[in-house]
């Protein structure tokens, strides 16, 4: 863009520049703030980021005449000479030059000669091609972006975050600037470039902006359409900021200049006046009384000793103290009493109002720069707003977390800053806060048994960390030596990639998988669950041929549920990720190796899909609960049934104690308690007896279009499952079984067969 165009851009976008001057650009994104709070705080501002012109650029500029198509008018266009290819050449320069070439209709040879003259790098000039721009372009780009830069560019793409950019267009532009050279190095096609662009854009979005993007994408909007929508929202927000700034400037400029009686020691930070101090300011007193929803981001919770407090051990002025972390607060706060106690300096600032959870509020007109020392060696200078009276002494909010790119891990009580991990401390109530409140309410509504409620609470505190079942290890036994093979790798659809990485990271974090270099590799893929999360599935079809099945048995459902009929109370305990709770012997791990999304992993626990998995798990849980009556175990489901409530509570309590003792994890979200009837594998069991689930039966049969032998086999399987509920089944399915004897693989059913079904 030439000088003239840049000046025009500045004039036409004065709104953009005039509103960039109150808080650090690193603080927070305009859109992210808006989508989080549904408004902008009164004191929100944007850093002035108007580009600074380099005088040397003007000296090294070359001017060209550009023809305006369809007219005889020409305009001046400047382009910079390249003195150092490695430092100065960019994809923007290439695009600018190609725009000029296209406008003037230059051919490849003419472009090559002109570009050659613009390249003034003495180290490389003699080796460059003069007569072909295409060859010259490839040569200079290979100099500017050598292959060793590839890893650096990938890392740079991963580090681009929306929260580090004020406007969405700046964030998008940062991605484009880094992606273009990377695309050149990788020789991306147009589709590959657009796919990588979309992937990087979504990955770096703030949490709240990403949710807004998902809403827009659900309306089948393209990324470009969503970007236009976000820019439109930003324009409205900038107008809002401009009106605020204009209003403030108007008040200041129209105020009558009167003789002021300055009082010694007086200063109002709001009016910039010595006639009174900030505490005496009537305007701020009235302002303090108003309730303004636009300031809801400045709300501080009313903390008590019983709440879950996460604190970071630090040193301030050589003294140890704990700083509370609150990701729900946008700012950092410190109590005036701590300022005095630690002899810290303060300075006056623009007043901000903070609302507490109790409904009271305070105005802070001072701030302090405090040096927080972590692990006795790493120092972080942090800005705090000073409060005269607050429920906490010192608090770190989102401002600190965002500025330092900190990652909070509440589960492991850890704060990570630039790869350095700091341990957090919390109250004993941390794990209890994670309890499934729905389940507790359900139990309390049906029983007053305090022992049962207490064991559930204790259970959940242990249930949080996904550790393995105690004192149990499983090994895979083989009928022959497995053959090493490099199987076909399944590609992962683009729409699953981000969620897929989340699932892989979860498995790593829970110590279920690890990196692998095994020669026994199986392919893997993702399937979408009902809740839109992904499940990792490994295809062990070939490996299972070499593995012996476990000698235990899976119980006959039909026989087992016969004992359940005529009971009044039913509960189901679902064991969380059943097989993954059992550790594999070291020698067996390499046979579970799989490949997905460019990396190879192997299981440290029994994986789903391995042949002996179901029977292994059935054997372990059955042995644990072998002395419990009225308890049916089917792999990872435990069904408890009883005629009286008291008996039912007693059995649940006994089961939970044994599971808790052995560190078996429960999926409370899928578990059910104190039901009058229970669905078990297509059957409904209640005090009236056992009967098929009608909707399951209809979905499996009546709406199935039978076209192949495989369809007939599935239909016969379902009918045989409900054999006891269908009179004379063998005689009535003769015509269906005859279809399997025919040579045809595809056929259609006649009306008689359809009626019989």
Automatic annotation (TrEMBL):
InterPro entries: DNA/RNA_pol_sf, Peptidase_aspartic_dom_sf, Retrovirus_Pol_polyprotein, Rev_trsase/Diguanyl_cyclase, RT_dom. SUPFAM superfamilies: Acid proteases, DNA/RNA polymerases. It comes from the Eukaryota. Keywords: Endonuclease, Hydrolase, Nuclease, Nucleotidyltransferase, RNA-directed DNA polymerase, Transferase. PROSITE patterns: RT_POL. One of its GO terms (molecular function) is RNA-directed DNA polymerase activity. Residues 508-685 form the Reverse transcriptase domain. CDD domains: retropepsin_like, RT_LTR. Transmembrane segments: none annotated. Pfam families: gag-asp_proteas, RVT_1. This is Reverse transcriptase.
